[in-house]
Amino acid sequence: MDDISNKTLAILVGIAIVISLIGLLNMEKGRVAYFTGAGTSGEGPVTFNATSELSILVSDSINWGDGRVNSDAPNATLDSSAGTVEGGSWTPIEAYIKITNDGTVNISVNVSAGENQNAEGLIGGTNPEFKIKAHETETGACAGTLISEWTSVPNSTETPIVICNLLRHGIDQDEFNVSARVVIPSDAEAGERNATLTFSASEPAS
Hints:
There is one protein chain. By secondary structure, this protein is of the alpha+beta class. It folds into 2 domains: 1-37; 57-202, Immunoglobulin-like. It is 20% helix and 27% strand. The protein is built from 2 helices and 10 strands. Strands 1, 2, 3, 4, 6, 7 and 9 form a 7-stranded antiparallel sheet that branches. A 3-stranded antiparallel sheet has the order 8-5-10, with no helix packed on it. A hairpin with a 4-residue loop joins strand 2 (75-79) and strand 3 (84-86). The radius of gyration is 41 Å and the shape is elongated. The N and C termini lie far apart (106 Å). Mean pLDDT is 83; it is low at 6-37.
């Protein structure tokens, strides 16, 4: 009876051990399957911010050098657009100031001269003129209104000229030229004249 009991106990213990091992293996298999499934997908966010740049490039200059009003003329007219000088001894030149939108957005371009650098302050005399106008060098560059007629230059205390109210950005469609015309009366005082034109960029009006 004791032998049978011992054998039965051994069998029962053996069965219990087998059941325990099977349970452990099933549990481990379950863990492995669960872990593998959790790693099959995930999210990795990518974030960036694209900014815009409002910028203008001004290049070249206009310089007539030395000259005088002819003795038989009431004034001299210097025109950098036509490349002519009438009534004076200055050297005719065809020259421009180039305005380029080198930013990443469309802009409005304003221009004014320095303090006391309008016609009266810069040149003086009887009926002086200091005017500018723009020329589109790339078709469609100024998608708004371009000042293409001679317009008097304001000084820094006067309202600036909006010379182009919508200058595009981008290759081959982002620039124009500005020419100057001055009328120097015979009674203007002698001396060197220098004017600084300030071109500024701003966001176009809505």
